Amino acid sequence: MAGRWVYDEKVWVVPYFRSSQIKSRYIRTYHSRRRMRAVAERVAEKCHVSGQEAVAEVIPLPKIIFKGDERIGEAIAGWLGLEEQEAEWLKA
């Protein structure tokens, strides 16, 4: 990005500045990330792993199971004690 220094006013003049997109992305994904953390906490407690390890290694498998077989998915949700919104997050 090109800019120039104005010596008399001691400021930078930037012709175009685009605000960061990261804040809007965090706002859009807030609820999904919150549900992921809630599911990870429950999985971590039941499987005796850390929350980070639950997200990386354990949660992908139940997500596949939830999409494939609803009956087994409901059993997993019951075992983990998931709320309906958390189970819906695994199905999505």
Quick description:
The protein contains six helices and two strands. It has 92 residues and is mainly α. It has one domain (19-91).
In words, what does this structure look like?
- With 92 residues, the protein is mainly alpha-helical.
- The chain has one domain (19-91).
- 66% of the residues lie in helices and 7% in strands.
- The protein contains six helices and two strands.
- It has helices at 22-28, 30-47, 51-58, 60-68, 70-80, 84-91; strands at 4-6, 11-13.
- The chain has a two-stranded antiparallel ribbon with strand order 1-2.
- α2 (30-47) packs across α3 (51-58), α2 packs across α6 and α4 crosses α5 (70-80).
- The radius of gyration is 22 Å and the shape is elongated.
